[in-house]
């Protein structure tokens, strides 16, 4: 892969430092912050706060992907995402990604100013996604998942966890390239918590380096997730900041290029120190 990617006049140089993607859920039901930022004014304030705290990308999602989350209609997802995006885009200069599995949402969001598509299905839920992203000529984040958010917790019976993740991501990278997406525009995500149990999440960290052979930047999204809650015996996702910090430090040590986080200010400090040590 090229060691750099230009997005909205910003140069991401892979391997030099860790980049932070700030999570902006404009949903009423996300696992950690559902309902906190699902008004336009609250979303704008949060986006501006994350930029001030050091976020490199803002990731806007209108469909919750927590375990068991109900699928909303296309119209509802479009309304949630576009109403926020149209207000935020003129106010912040950093790249914005849209967290969606629907090609129609991806296209509408990019036409309204989004710069990246973040697809938790790795381009598998919507047969039009990869060709749509190719036509839009924007980067895509391909994540590993089994099943859907409704069924994924029952699909953790792997014979070879890392082998399966590697194979799936390799297949989707090839499919993306075949659809016309440039290799340098592909970022991969092993999918912490998506059809993975407690032990499997930990194994992903320990063996993250294996995915380097796919020759794409690696995104890790561990922020506030349930495996951290289990370790800490902490049922409240918002009280998992220190545990998230440890997971982020481990992700950097094992080769992550981007961290998808809720607590940007705190994880910026974690990344700065971890980068100074490990890079």
From TrEMBL:
Under which pathway is this protein filed? Cofactor biosynthesis; tetrahydrofolate biosynthesis; 7,8-dihydrofolate from 2-amino-4-hydroxy-6-hydroxymethyl-7,8-dihydropteridine diphosphate and 4-aminobenzoate: step 1/2
What SUPFAM superfamilies does the record tag this protein with? Dihydropteroate synthetase-like (SSF51717)
InterPro entries in UniProt: DHP_synth-like, DHP_synth_dom, Dihydropteroate_synth-like_sf, Pterin-binding_dom
Top EC class of this enzyme: transferase
Gene3D superfamilies xrefs:
Dihydropteroate synthase-like
EC nos: 2.5.1.15
Which metal ions or organic cofactors does this protein require, according to UniProt?
Mg(2+)
Please write the reaction equations for the catalytic activity of this protein.
(7,8-dihydropterin-6-yl)methyl diphosphate + 4-aminobenzoate = 7,8-dihydropteroate + diphosphate
Q: Where is the Pterin-binding domain?
A: 18-272
Protein keywords: Folate biosynthesis, Magnesium, Metal-binding, Transferase
Keyword Magnesium carried by entry: yes
Short name of one Pfam family = Pterin_bind
Extract the GO molecular function terms from the UniProt entry.
dihydropteroate synthase activity
Q: Which NCBIfam families match?
A: DHPS
The record's similarity note reads: Belongs to the DHPS family.
* Reported function: Catalyzes the condensation of para-aminobenzoate (pABA) with 6-hydroxymethyl-7,8-dihydropterin diphosphate (DHPt-PP) to form 7,8-dihydropteroate (H2Pte), the immediate precursor of folate derivatives.
Q: What is this protein called?
A: Dihydropteroate synthase
Q: Which organism is it from?
A: Anabaena lutea FACHB-196
Task: Name the gene that codes for it.
Answer: folP
């Amino acid at each position: 892969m090229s060691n750099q990617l230009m997005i909205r006049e910003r140069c991401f140089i892979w391997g030099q430092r860790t980049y932070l993607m700030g999570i902006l859920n404009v949903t009423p039901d996300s696992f950690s912050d559902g309902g906190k930022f699902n008004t336009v004014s609250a979303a704008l304030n949060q986006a501006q706060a994350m930029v001030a705290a050091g976020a490199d990308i803002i990731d806007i999602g209108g469909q919750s992907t927590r375990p068991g989350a109900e699928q909303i209609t296309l119209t509802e997802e479009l309304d949630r995402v576009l109403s926020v995006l149209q207000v935020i885009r003129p106010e912040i200069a950093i790249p914005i990604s849209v967290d969606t599995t629907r090609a129609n949402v991806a296209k509408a969001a990019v036409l309204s100013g989004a710069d990246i598509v973040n697809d938790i299905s790795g381009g598998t839920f919507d047969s039009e996604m990869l060709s749509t992203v190719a036509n839009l000529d924007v980067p895509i984040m391909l994540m590993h998942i089994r099943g859907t958010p409704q069924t994924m917790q029952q699909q953790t019976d792997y014979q070879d966890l890392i082998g399966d993740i590697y194979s799936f991501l390799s297949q989707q990278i090839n499919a993306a390239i075949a659809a016309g997406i440039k290799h340098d525009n592909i970022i991969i995500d092993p999918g912490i918590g998506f059809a993975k149990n407690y032990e499997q999440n930990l194994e992903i960290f320990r063996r993250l380096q294996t995915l380097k052979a796919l020759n794409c930047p690696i995104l890790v999204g561990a922020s506030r997730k349930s495996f951290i809650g289990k370790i800490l015996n902490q049922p409240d996702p918002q009280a998992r900041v220190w545990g998230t910090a440890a997971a982020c430090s481990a992700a950097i040590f094992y080769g992550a290029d981007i961290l998808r986080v809720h607590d940007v200010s705190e994880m910026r400090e974690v990344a700065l120190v971890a980068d100074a040590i490990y890079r």
